[in-house]
Every structure is written in structure tokens, then in C-alpha cells.
Amino acid sequence: MDQVEAEGMRRTKPDLYQRQRGEGYLRGVQEDRPAVITINGTFASLAVQELLARLHPYRNRPNSQLAYIGGNFTEVQLHTEPEGEPCNVFKTHVGRGDMTPLLNMPGIL
């Protein structure tokens, strides 16, 4: 609960937060370790859901309309984008999993 209170104070009263933190009133609050497990877990489950949807098509929309699924938890939003031009950074690597040796890396057995 102390961490929740401190986080609320940091957002609503930043001056008071900095003063109390500097004076040691916010003991036990670890600023450098954000709670990301819930966000990581949510996106991991979305990734598994996406894999299952592509292996066993069940959606009302075709997969080509859902090439990208992203989210913004600060605004509580999920958004999708349809297929488009390949990313310039990765387009030279598209389909390389279908080669021998796998990914053109002999060390992978």
C-alpha cells in the first residue's frame, strides 16, 4: 500500500513526493523497479492468442487485417493495423526461417 500511495503522490503532488523521498519518509519504495509483470503477462497472452488465431482461424476478420496488434495501457487501448509494405529494417529477413540451414545459421540444429 505504501508503494501505491507514493506513486499517487508522485503523480499528483510531485514537489511533496520529491521532498518526502529526499527526507526518507518513503521507505521501502523502490523507484527503480516498475511493476511490469501484469503488462508483460497481458501482451504474452495476446501473443499466444494471436498464434492460436492464425493456426485455427476463428475471427470474423481475416488475418491480413490484423497484421499488427499493439496496446497503450496508459490510455487503456488496443489497436490493430492491416498488412502493408514490409518494414524496411526487416524486409531482407522475411521468410528466412524457410531455408537450410535454418535462418542461415549453421549452429542451429
Helix content: 25-40%
Percent strand equals 5-15%
Radius of gyration, whole Å: 22 Å
Shape by Cα distribution: elongated
> What is the element string, with H for helices and E for strands?
HHHEE
Tell me the layout of helices and strands.
Blueprint: H1 2-12, H2 14-22, H3 37-55, E1 68-72, E2 77-81
Antiparallel strand pairs: 1-2
Structural commentary:
36% of the residues lie in helices and 9% in strands. It has a domain at 1-33. A hairpin with a 4-residue loop joins strand 1 and strand 2 (77-81). It has helices at residues 2-12, 14-22, 37-55; strands spanning 68-72, 77-81. The longest helix has 19 residues, at 37-55. A two-stranded antiparallel ribbon has the order 1-2. It is elongated. It is built from three helices and two strands. The protein is α+β, with helices and mostly antiparallel strands and 109 residues long.
In short:
The protein is α+β, with helices and mostly antiparallel strands and 109 residues long.
Which features does this protein show?
9% strand; alpha+beta
